[in-house]
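Handout for the seminar on molecular recognition.
Each group receives one record of this type.
Step one: identify the two inputs.
Step two: read the structure output and locate the region that could contact 2-acetamido-2-deoxy-beta-D-glucopyranose.
Step three: write two sentences on what you found, then compare them with the reference statements printed after the record.
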Amino acid sequence: MLRACWLGSLLHVGLARDDWLPESPAEVRGREACLQRFKETDFAAENFQSSWLDQDNKMAFIECLYRLRTRWRPREKAVFAGGIHYPTLVTAHHTWPPVSTSGAKLCWLDQVGVHRNNIEASECCDTSYGPQGRTECWDEYFTYELCCLGDVNLAEMPHYFVAPAFDINVGNAVRQLGTFDLGQSYALQTLCGSGDVVIDVGANVGGFTVPLAERVGPDGEVHAFEPFRKVFQHLNANVALNGLGNVYTYNVALGASKAKVPAYSPDLTNFNFPSAIRVLDQFKPEAAVKEANLRYEDRQETLNVQPLDEFVFSRRVQLIKIDVEFMELQVVLGATKTIRENKPLIWVENEAFFDDPANLTFVDTMYRDLQYVCSAVARLELFCVPGREEPGGQLVQDERLIPAGFRRVFRHLTGEYKDMHLWRALSEVDPSFSSKI
Ligand SMILES: *[C@@H]1O[C@H](CO)[C@@H](O)[C@H](O)[C@H]1NC(C)=O
């Protein structure tokens, strides 16, 4: 409801990326003072006995933390180059396109995360209460203009990412979009909600791990599996950079059974496509360059392969995302117990299905062994849903398990994404939001 008026206003004002409210001189001064404070603060000074740990200084520190994440943070996205053994790019204060709907929710929370003055968020922007809606909703960080008139760049929490500079695929997309694929990110977000357990198989640098972790929130869990050591390190970095407390990472290749396999890892010192490197049946190094433009490191490393069924999850698994470069059948064969017991929705990359002629081994196995029905949802991507028996005995996807917004997300994102369509797509993530458009 609340976001209906928020979005309604957005559509009305025709938000463009440079429509941000001008920064006041006080905001600029405040930001600079806070940045200076962080440079100077030394909690360890005088053997932890200095005034930096006095109540006043601690309060000012907290205040700066809060303000720098909201109104006072730098508005422009920035990219920094780093790296000692291989080059990295650090993307700072990314807010556009939005990574998740959760940032905007901050408009309605006070500093400690409680609904402001117990007012229903839907009322805050309602101008029948006055030209600024319910004034009790606002303070100097979160204003009517910010939350209701479309200065949503500030309502979206800033995100931070690191990726190998030469990664032309996932790292490149994460730097641009804050995710690997916007449509898939929002679609996956429709498939889970607050408190859910999600499994991300082939997490890479965390292009979906981060948005999914925000979507399921502090009471949910994302279990992210990534076999390649250095890619895994970037995954962890991105989880930490975004202060996400609900992600569990595993430096493991999921497969049909436990094994240790020698494999080449992606070379991060050259332009490369790290996400396309397989764990099993790898090309020989020369063939990899020739056939797939992939570059390996000189030496192999030993990768750990384990079946998903060996892992124990605290609660029901709602969603599994699988992107494992031709190993998806093995992943599923090692996960039959988990899938039977939890009946999760499954999003899976399966190139074989899209080959000409199609190889239906994966889809047939899902149908025969697990009573799942898979259908194409994007290029190379399948969506697999527990089947429901039709009168003739045929299984069809149980539509009751698919949130209404799931398919609509894509409709808004065809071609170049545009602001309005982007907001509509994002709105599909939250049904209460979408029903008002
Ligand atoms: C089809 O895919 C399966 C694995 O999913 C593979 O074992 C099989 O060899 C493939 N068949 C053909 C004809 O390529």
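Reference statements: The chain has two domains: 2-155, 179-434. The longest strand covers residues 381-389.
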